[in-house]
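Notes, Module 5: Reading structure tokens.

Key idea: the token line is not a picture. It is a compressed description, and you learn to read it the same way you learned to read a sequence, by spotting repeated patterns. We will look at two proteins. The first is printed below with its tokens.
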Amino acid sequence: MKIRFMRRTGVVLALVAIVGCDDEIVGDASGFLVGLDIVSGASQTAAPGEALPQPIVVRPLRADGDTHQTARVFFSLVEGDGSLRAGGASASGNGATITSGSGETAARWTLGPVEGVQRLRVFVVSVQDTIATEVTATATPR
């Protein structure tokens, strides 16, 4: 299968040719995920081992600038040995959830027991690539 992207008047088009077919299938790639916006919850502080005051809220973005409903968003602790609650399930180091009708989703983050900066990786897997960003929080003494 060959995929060719073209930009016409601000819209990205994907042209797909399937091997063995003489016809070319044309599709609109404006719904592809191209970004991941941290809506709120970045750069918080809490005591070691405590939950952050606010959830980490993210919004996957499509090529046309709209949000993506029903996108699966993954959360993975990179540094800090804390825990997450995403999509109603608790996990020691990672979790996944699906965006709501507003195109947003959230995870609750409990920091690990060590003071200092801790990191959380947030990512979505799109047709073209994995789109990721990191959020940091700081565990400070009470």
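Here is the second protein, with the sequence above and the tokens below, as before.
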Amino acid sequence: MICHLTVSGRDFDPDRFLEGSPLRRRARIWRRGEPLQSKFLQKKWKRKTRPDSGFRLAASRTGSDRQIAAQVRQVIRFLRTHRRQLSRLRGSAKGSLDFGILWPREAVIAGWSFPPELLSLAGGLGIEIGLTVYGATRWEELTDNRVHIP
């Protein structure tokens, strides 16, 4: 799994925001009014077209898809590198970082915390942080010490 940055807003112009940016080539852009391809989103939002404009891109490129500590380090580096551009989001769009992790469905409890530097960088840019946990069907799917919780 990787961490995605999603930026969107009703009147946000992703093309203008990303113009001349190295982030442009990494971004998947959508525009308000475009058809929703996902049946899940059509049902969730009770509509067939996008209500906003925005983009989504990978903020981490971890080699192991289950190491959240590696994702965190890479996202901190990403936020430092692109801080100036991302600071332009305030007031024009909502930004969200979503960390993904696989975890066995049979696990009763799991806990994570994020380092102050990540919280400070993201919070200072007005970007929220989320964690999406995807259930693996059994512990055996999480082999080779691939799950690492800092």
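Summary for the second protein:
- Strands lie at 4-9, 28-30, 53-58, 94-104, 127-136.
- The radius of gyration is 17 Å.
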